[in-house]
Specification:
With 424 residues, the protein is of the alpha/beta class. The protein is 36% helix and 17% strand.
Length: 424
């Protein structure tokens, strides 16, 4: 018998008229286990699955469980050298998505032994590493994760957390106020520092580098750090209040990133910043550890998140990225506004805001929370409202979110600093 007649893998048949066949053995025979009772130590995932035409949802869900854990397209002899029942992921429940044709929520349980302790990088490499390009699926989205307490305790989490930050700043009972310096690119370091001073002296708690302010020819990072530190100390001396500027330490390599963080610490400033998605989780966790050990607060920007989370049927929901950030480490993160220029649904936004800052969050599908999450003693992350915000958004923000409102541009501030104080 020729290869074409009998031994070619069905996976090579990709024409629409043929459909998709997973391999020499159906995934659901091993990885679809509706009778499975989840354990307290399992990592649980909720995937929005859109199968290819002709692929049953059970097979699609089982394929996700297999390809994100121990499985491959065929049976291999080395399967007999380990215990698949101990290590395999399991698709234990599937339900249709109301109002969406051919979309299903597949629930997958992963044994904790599959993951390296304290590594968001390894967790994502396993759960979302390769399976999103799988031929059996037209689209795949990771909607939520349940991180078990046993795994939570392997992470250090935020460098300091909400309460410690308020203690450091001596600011209680109100949102913190800040703005991003604009234009975000093109200013010299001296003029950039001048803008910081005017904002801080006018009543803001913080000013901020934008995500793409790193170390460009028109403004090298060391010069920016020096002029911003001068603005901080001058405004503090004149107001008697603690001030800060989010100095972006994001760099092209981890060594340079840490060098910038060290310089910020030597200047005595209270806070630095990192782009955690473009910089990467390994770099972010390293920077978080440095900040914890050296008394620096760490603000997190989520640049690039919409590439991952904006499509409704493919990618990863921001609530998953928010949980990952809390584990990796950060004291603040941009979280959407409901009002303003950026996309955000009220109930869904409130759901991941609570996942960032609360200790225990109950399952609530109306807010997009698929699993109850217990963070035990891990500090909370302060959510940041940012994007097209002006002073008249303040009442809505404080009512809806009860968190930090951020102003998106300096130009909006000159005539409204007095109004901001009246609003608060």
């Amino acid at each position: 018998m020729s290869c074409r007649e009998g031994f070619m893998s069905p996976q090579t048949e990709t024409k629409a008229s043929v459909g998709f066949k997973a391999g020499v053995k159906e995934y659901k025979l091993t990885y679809y286990t509706p009778e499975y009772e989840t354990k307290d130590t399992d990592i649980l995932a909720a995937f929005r699955v859109t199968p290819q035409p002709g692929v049953p949802p059970e097979e699609a869900g089982a394929a996700v469980a297999a390809e994100s854990s121990t499985g491959t397209w065929t049976t291999v002899w080395t399967d007999g050298l380990t215990s698949l029942d101990r290590y395999k992921g399991r698709c234990y429940h599937i339900e249709p998505v109301p109002g969406e044709e051919d979309q299903f929520i597949a629930y997958v349980a992963y044994p904790l032994d599959l993951f390296e302790e304290g590594s968001v990088t390894n967790m994502f490499t396993s759960i979302v590493g390769n399976v999103f390009g799988f031929k059996a699926l037209r689209a795949l989205r990771l909607e939520d994760l349940r991180i078990p307490i046993a795994y939570v305790k392997t992470f250090e989490g935020p460098p300091h957390g909400i309460q410690v930050e308020r203690d450091k700043l001596n600011k209680y009972g109100r949102p913190l106020l800040g703005c991003t310096i604009k234009p975000k690119l093109g200013l010299s370091a001296k003029n950039y520092g001048r803008a910081c001073y005017e904002c801080l002296r006018g009543g803001l708690d913080f000013t901020k580098d934008d995500e793409n302010v790193n170390s460009q020819p028109f403004m090298r990072w060391r010069d920016r750090f020096l002029f911003c530190a001068e603005a901080i100390y001058k405004s503090q001396a004149e107001t008697g209040e603690i001030k800060g500027h989010y100095l972006n330490a994001t760099a092209g390599n981890c060594e340079e990133m840490i060098k910038r963080a060290v310089f910020a610490r030597e200047l005595g400033v209270p806070i630095i910043m990192h782009d955690y998605l473009t910089g990467g989780f390994t770099a972010n966790t390293s920077l978080s550890h440095y900040c914890r050990d050296n008394g620096l607060l760490l603000h997190i920007h989520r640049a690039m998140h919409a590439v991952i989370d904006r499509q409704k049927n493919h990618g990863m929901h921001f609530r998953v990225l928010a949980k990952a950030l809390r584990m990796s480490g950060g004291d603040h993160i941009h979280s959407g506004t409901v009002v303003g220029k950026l996309e955000g649904e009220r109930d869904i936004t409130l759901g991941f805001v609570d996942l960032l800052r609360d200790d225990y969050i109950e399952k609530d599908r109306s807010r997009g929370i698929y699993f109850t999450q217990d963070w035990v003693s891990m500090p909370g992350v302060l959510p940041v409202a940012s994007g097209g915000i002006h002073v008249w958004h303040m009442p809505a923000l404080t009512e809806i979110l009860e968190m930090i409102p951020y102003y998106s541009s300096v130009e909006e501030l000159w005539d409204t600093l007095g109004v901001m104080r009246q609003v608060l």
